[in-house]
Amino acid sequence: LTEYYVYSSSNTYLSGTSLFSDSKLEMYEHSLKKGCRCLELDIQNIGEDLVVKHKNSKNNIKLADVLTTIKNIGFSINKFPIILSI
């Protein structure tokens, strides 16, 4: 892995700035299609659900939905491994 340049993203799930934007599942799909191989997941436990959410965003994404999206789209364009920054 140290021999490769890894295209990564920070706050992958945010649709805009980290101050006031929404968390959106589509941002994972977009990042994967652009070639990102390192994705950030800020996981929080809300009630009985594990969700991906930024501290400032109003909404959240179910972790299961994020993982399903990564599984379904992650290797359709690029076969290199995906690193999850949790």
Explained architecture:
The protein has helices at residues 26-33, 63-73, and strands at residues 38-40, 43-46, 49-52, 61-62, 83-85. By secondary structure, it is an alpha+beta fold. The strands form two sheets. Strands 2-3-4 form a three-stranded antiparallel beta sheet. A two-stranded parallel ribbon has the order 1-5. The longest helix has 11 residues, at 63-73.
Spell out the helices and strands N to C.
HEEEEHE
Q: Count of helices? A: 2
Q: Segments where pLDDT lies below 50 for 5+ residues?
A: none
Q: Helix proportion of residues, in percent? A: 10-25%
3D shape? globular
* Span between termini: 18 Å
Instruction: Report strand %.
Output: 15-25%
**β-strand number:** 5
Radius of gyration: 13 Å
Q: State the secondary-structure class.
A: alpha+beta
Using brief descriptors, characterize the structure shown.
86 residues, 3-stranded antiparallel β-sheet, two-stranded parallel ribbon, 22% helix, 19% strand
